[in-house]
């Protein structure tokens, strides 16, 4: 694709001054509104991945922006040496909607996983079992529970007493548990690995096994929580209750915030913390985003529109799977398909040869039809 001089200048400066950690798509975004983004040349794009599931209520949602503007003129930061009202309001809300008892705020999803790791390893037992193909983050603790070898290998040795069991195989998990196991961590649906959905009953079986072995069940809902899969939380599809939930992404509606929610277990003062966590600005943004999701019944919209997308994609003889607005499409050349879609004004992402869709939860059939029309013209999806 052709890149303008204005965009090329930004891309060259990024290569010169920014660490080489990201393989970016060749699009320089300047602004966003609702379902759409605009680049520095004014080209409009339909956003079908929402900042990897972050912009759940659309870009620059009016209610979220209003809350941030108002709070920014009152109080942005005090640290956790002092009490603040937005933090307590959000903590109470999260506890009530999740069924948990306590909330620890973080700046993102990886920090939420780190908090969970520390929380369950406070006792004598130290071993945590994650699942093959899970993704939980890139810091040393969360990376120790992330499966992909190319993420892990350069930084080994990682945190000890971390291991993996085969996903969607309760027998493999049972065999992996030892006397030193304190917890099991899993994604209710594996998102980063290409939208891998376990069999019905698997989460219930994990919950039962954890109860039998008297170990904690941790679920990573960083990419799934707050309506993405058609319910407020993905674990609710199987009517279970985990001991710890890690959330982030959609929680802030575009503003950085995450949380570790727990029941039946808690930190002691000084065991964990953070300077910026739970700051008033992040908390009011999350309060506004969560209220918008609930008041506008966006989980139900995700279910309805997700079914519409899946149906239409299957009718095109594509190998597709998903739940709600978390969809994976196996194609011959996913990177090529993403580049073709950019040319057609659509933004999506990929893992391997899986095209991944995580659009804002406000999407309608109109935007779906626009996406499907663009897909029909992609040469990479044919043959």
Describe this structure in words.
The protein has a domain of 234 residues: Type I PLP-dependent aspartate aminotransferase-like (Major domain) (Aspartate Aminotransferase, domain 2). 36% of the residues lie in helices and 17% in strands. The protein contains 13 helices and 15 strands. α3 packs antiparallel against α10. The protein is globular and about 60 Å long. The two termini are 22 Å apart. 45% of the residues are buried.
Order of helices and strands: HEEEHHHEHEHHEHEHEEEHHEEHEEEH
Distance between the termini: 22 Å
Task: Write down the Rg.
Answer: 21 Å
Would you tell me the overall average pLDDT? Answer: 96
Q: Let me know the number of strands.
A: 15
Q: CATH topology of the domain at 62-295, what is it called?
A: Aspartate Aminotransferase, domain 2
Name of the top-level CATH class of the domain at 62-295: Alpha Beta
The CATH architecture of the domain at 62-295 can be named as 3-Layer(aba) Sandwich
Overall structural class, as computed from helix and strand content, comes to alpha/beta
Name the beta content range.
15-25%
CATH superfamily of the domain at 62-295: Type I PLP-dependent aspartate aminotransferase-like (Major domain)
The total of helices stands at 13
State the low-pLDDT regions, or none. Answer: none
What fraction, in percent, of the residue positions are helical? 25-40%
Shape: globular
**How are strands sequenced across the largest beta sheet?**
4-10-9-8-7-5-6
Largest sheet composition? 7 strands, mixed
């Amino acid at each position: 694709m052709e890149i303008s001089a204005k965009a090329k200048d930004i891309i060259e400066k990024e290569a010169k001054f920014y660490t080489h950690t990201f393989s970016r798509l060749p699009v320089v975004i300047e602004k966003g509104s609702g379902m759409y983004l605009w680049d520095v040349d004014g080209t409009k794009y339909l956003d079908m991945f929402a900042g990897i599931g972050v912009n759940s209520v659309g870009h620059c949602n009016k209610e979220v922006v209003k809350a941030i503007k108002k709070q920014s003129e009152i109080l942005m930061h005090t640290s956790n040496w002092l009490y603040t009202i937005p933090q307590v309001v959000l903590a109470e809300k999260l506890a009530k909607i999740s069924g948990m008892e306590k909330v620890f705020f973080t700046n993102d999803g990886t920090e939420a996983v780190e908090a969970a790791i520390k929380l369950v390893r406070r006792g004598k037992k130290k071993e945590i079992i994650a699942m093959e193909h899970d993704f939980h983050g890139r810091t040393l603790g969360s990376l120790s529970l992330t499966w992909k070898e190319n993420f892990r290998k350069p930084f080994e040795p990682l945190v000890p007493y971390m291991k993996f069991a085969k996903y969607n195989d309760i027998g493999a998990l049972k065999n992996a548990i030892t006397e030193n196991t304190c917890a099991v961590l899993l994604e209710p649906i594996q998102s980063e690995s290409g939208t891998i959905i376990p069999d019905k009953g698997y989460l219930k079986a994990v919950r039962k096994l954890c109860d039998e072995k008297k170990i904690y069940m941790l679920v990573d809902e960083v990419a799934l929580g707050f309506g993405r899969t058609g319910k407020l939380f993905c674990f609710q599809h199987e009517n279970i209750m985990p001991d710890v939930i890690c959330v982030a992404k959609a929680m802030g509606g575009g503003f950085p915030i995450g949380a570790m929610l727990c029941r039946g277990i808690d930190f002691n003062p000084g065991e964990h913390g953070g300077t910026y966590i739970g700051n008033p600005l992040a908390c009011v943004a999350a309060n506004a985003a969560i209220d918008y999701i609930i008041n506008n019944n966006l989980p139900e919209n995700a279910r309805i529109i997700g079914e519409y997308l899946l149906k239409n994609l299957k009718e095109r003889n594509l190998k597709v799977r998903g739940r709600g607005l978390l969809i994976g499409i196996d194609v011959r050349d996913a990177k090529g398909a993403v580049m073709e879609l950019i040319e057609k004004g659509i933004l999506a992402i990929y893992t391997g040869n899986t095209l991944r869709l995580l659009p804002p939860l406000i999407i309608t059939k109109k935007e779906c039809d626009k996406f499907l029309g663009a897909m029909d013209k992609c040469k990479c999806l044919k043959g």
